[in-house]
Design goal:
Largest sheet: 6 strands, mixed
Distance between the termini: 48 Å
Strand order of the largest sheet: 1-6-5-2-3-4
Helix content: 40-55%
CATH architecture of the largest domain: 3-Layer(aba) Sandwich
CATH superfamily of the largest domain: HUPs
CATH topology of the largest domain: Rossmann fold
Shape: globular
Number of helices: 20
Strand content: 5-15%
Oligomer: single chain
Bound molecules: flavin-adenine dinucleotide
């Protein structure tokens, strides 16, 4: 992100940057929203920006939602979930003053040129900021090569990423920063419906776009076997969870009305499975953390005057909400945004060298410790270890594209224990998580995996073989501390 923009902005300008020096094109017919992360029609800062500018310039709005097949882990599982989201967006945008152009690439490189073709008749392009991918990679072209101004909007979390000037070593240090900085932004929410009272001219797509990159038909693509025609990994099968904003909102409603009141005591009990299960929807942008926060605040009858004035850095008590809400917000805001801030400031977020110094020193010291058990990536992938609880977690990942949050920690710790060294363990965790988890490939994939090797944690004693000072977990202790009987049965 480079320079601030000049057109007036209806939310904190810290979320908005111009990423090239090209001018706004007064001859253009529309504002182009290149929807690549916030894949939804509501509670979306980037879409709000696009509608604001379209209204200001009196031009139409074209929303292109591309889906590429050359992402390393693109599979039937990830694509089906994304396309279910597209089906939802198509339905919702049908009655709105915007042209929706879903586009699904069938072979790698097929989308090359699409953005430039759309840009040729645009006044301005708006897109989403993604901390784990470079802009040229996301656009398929260097921003400077685009003929019109490109604006990038950070709608990732409650705290704009630009407020931070570094990454944070622990959740505690980041929480202190949140407590200081967040009050200024807590009421700066995106509009639930950016189309309210909006009237815009109709848009026709450039002829080249209609000819070379015809709009996809999400309904037809979801019909039996149509995903087979795409150059993606067909071995990773779709899961029952349905993608899209409506499913995300209905899961949020169910969580707040049924599971939420037990969150503090029950979130770490795999047999009960009472966490929100919203991470995949957050990852695909089918729901925003702002909407989740706002629904929770409404349920709690909360307003920002209840925030504690002093930054405490403590896990609970600062928000002025119930204990369940405070615990949930510590995950949704503190932990989630800690990971986003880390990836925003660091390029080594998925590498061994991105671990803290104390952790690498300890891991190096224990690098040659004998490993009583070693499993290959293939054995781990097919859940063929001696440990029934670990195998059950891996099977949940294979079948459902998720692992209960408490067991996910054990899953990572054991992969480390059973691998020749921490570097190999890191690679295996990233590969299995990113390939099979619906919420994989997210900033928090690398936070969670890094945490298993000491990131955002402290040194623990007693120092142990293999783990050194890295926090240790065992399946026997986990099974003693929580209830896993039903879980084991379910995923046996
Ligand atoms: C080895 C390992 C790998 C992980 N990989 C991912 C991943 O690929 N994608 C991902 O989003 N999370 C990942 N996590 C973090 C965490 O396990 C999941 O976010 C959580 O289990 C999702 O379930 P939920 O939505 O029911 O969470 P809830 O308990 O309902 O929490 C609400 C939201 O808060 C956020 N959150 C919760 N726990 C964490 C956490 N520890 N760190 C960061 N954010 C959190 C998520 O966005 C989540 O949806 C990983 C953790 C570990 C230990």
């Amino acid at each position: 992100m480079t320079t601030p923009t000049t057109l007036p902005c209806s939310f904190s300008a810290l979320r908005l940057q111009s990423s090239n020096q090209s001018p706004v094109n007064p001859q253009g017919h529309y504002i182009l929203y290149w929807m690549i992360a916030a894949r939804r029609c509501r509670w979306n800062f980037a879409l709000q920006r696009a509608t604001d500018v379209a209204r200001e310039l009196g031009v139409g709005l074209l929303i292109c939602e591309p889906l590429f097949c050359d992402d390393p882990f693109a599979s039937d599982r990830t694509h089906r979930f994304s396309i279910e989201g597209m089906r939802e967006n198509q339905k919702q945008l049908n009655s709105k003053p915007a042209l929706y152009w879903p586009w699904v690439e069938t072979r790698p490189g097929g989308g090359r040129g699409l953005l430039e073709a759309l840009a040729s008749e645009a006044c301005l392009i708006v897109t989403d900021y993604v901390p784990t991918a470079s802009l040229p990679h996301l656009l398929g072209v260097a921003p400077e090569k685009l003929p019109v101004r490109l604006e990038v909007v950070d709608g990732n979390g409650l705290l704009p990423l630009a407020v931070t000037d570094k990454d944070y070593p622990t959740a505690y240090s980041f929480r202190r920063q949140l407590h200081k900085a967040l009050p200024a932004f807590i009421d700066d929410q995106p509009l639930a419906d950016p189309f309210t009272k909006l009237r815009l001219p109709a848009v026709t797509p450039p002829r080249k776009v209609a000819e070379c990159w015809p709009a996809a038909d999400p309904v037809a693509l979801l019909a039996k076997n149509r995903l087979n025609q795409l150059a993606i990994d067909h071995r990773v099968r779709p899961v029952p969870l349905c993608g899209g904003s409506t499913s995300a909102e209905s899961r949020l409603d169910d969580f707040l009305s049924e599971d939420f009141t037990g969150y503090v005591e029950q979130r770490n009990i795999p047999d009960l499975d009472r966490t929100s299960r919203l991470s995949a929807y957050l990852h695909f942008g089918h729901i925003s953390s702002h909407q989740i926060f706002s629904c929770l605040a409404e349920k709690e009858g909360w307003d920002s005057s209840r925030l504690a004035l002093k930054p405490t850095g403590q896990r609970s008590g600062w928000w002025g909400m119930s204990e369940h809400a405070e615990a949930f917000l510590d995950e949704l805001v503190t932990w989630r945004e800690l990971g986003y801030v880390f990836c925003h400031h660091r390029t080594d977020y998925a590498d061994y060298r991105g671990l803290p110094d104390w952790a690498r020193t300890s891991l190096n010291l224990h690098r040659n410790d004998p490993r009583p058990r070693l499993y290959s990536k293939e054995e781990l992938e097919s859940a063929e270890t001696h440990d029934p609880l670990w195998n059950a977690a891996q099977r949940q990942l294979l079948r459902e594209g998720r692992i209960h949050g408490y067991l996910r920690m054990l899953w990572g710790k054991k992969i480390f224990e059973w691998s020749p060294d921490a570097q190999i363990a890191l690679q295996v965790m990233v590969e299995l998580n990113d390939r099979y988890a619906l919420d994989g490939r997210d900033p928090n994939s690398y936070s969670g995996i890094g945490w298993c090797l000491g990131r955002f944690d402290r040194a623990w004693g007693p120092e142990r073989p293999i783990f050194g000072k890295i926090r240790y977990m065992s399946s026997a202790n986990t099974a003693r501390k929580t209830s896993v009987k039903k879980y084991l049965k379910r995923y046996s």
